[in-house]
Design brief:
- The chain starts with a helix and ends with a strand.
- It is about 10% helix and about 40% strand.
- The strands form three sheets. Strands 4-9-8-6-11 form a five-stranded mixed beta sheet, with no helix packed on it. It has a four-stranded antiparallel beta sheet with strand order 5-12-10-7, with no helix packed on it.
- By secondary structure, it is mostly beta strands.
- The protein has two domains: about 40 residues, no CATH class; about 100 residues, RNA polymerase II/Efflux pump adaptor protein, barrel-sandwich hybrid domain (OB fold (Dihydrolipoamide Acetyltransferase, E2P)), CATH 2.40.50.
- It is built from one helix and twelve strands, in the order αββββββββββββ.
- About 20% of the residues have low confidence.
Length: about 150
Amino acid sequence: MDLKELKALLRLMESSDVEELEVEEEGRRVRIRRRSGQGVAPLAGPQRFILPTQPSAKGSATANVAPEMAGLIPIESPMVGTFYRAPAPGADLYVKEGDFIQKGSVVCIIEAMKLMNEIETEVAGRVMKVMVENGQPVEFGQALFLVEPA
């Protein structure tokens, strides 16, 4: 991808409501994310996402949590995409309810724009509830798992 193509992508982002765009070509990956309402900023980096340990300011992850789940920490989706519990069909699940996880553990994959993004967590503890079915679409900030902190 050359500079001309990057500039075209930036113009496309500026003229639309798209918040984030990620493109991979010939082994190079570029992610462009809109900065809090001020144009766009090109980003490049690894495909691992570290999840926050606290719910978002909106509380979206805890809005649908039953009272018996109070005190559990949600692992939220960092992007819109399709949720997968295993690295491939028929493979072992990354985590199951009751499993103990450590900081940096990969807990799932979210497919976005034909890219498989491994999702890591910053919380250590026991997975109490899986909130999403395998292959289900997820939204940014949606609770994927509930974890009892260790």
